[in-house]
């Protein structure tokens, strides 16, 4: 890699967006599990 090449590091807003999407995915997965439990208990 040349010294003039740009860093492979993604920009700050992209990293923030990726972190937010990961959190949203975890929240969605937990919500789906809770919904299945509630439906299964009724």
Automatic annotation (TrEMBL):
Name of the featured protein: Uncharacterized protein
Membrane spanning residue stretches: 20-41
Source taxonomy: Bacteria, Bacillati, Actinomycetota, Actinomycetes, Kitasatosporales
Organism: Streptomyces chengmaiensis
Keywords for this protein: Membrane, Transmembrane, Transmembrane helix
Transmembrane helix recorded as keyword: yes
């Amino acid at each position: 890699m040349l010294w003039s090449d740009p860093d492979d590091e993604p920009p700050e807003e992209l990293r923030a967006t990726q972190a937010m999407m990961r959190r949203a995915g975890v929240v969605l997965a937990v919500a789906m599990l809770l919904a299945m439990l509630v439906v299964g208990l009724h």
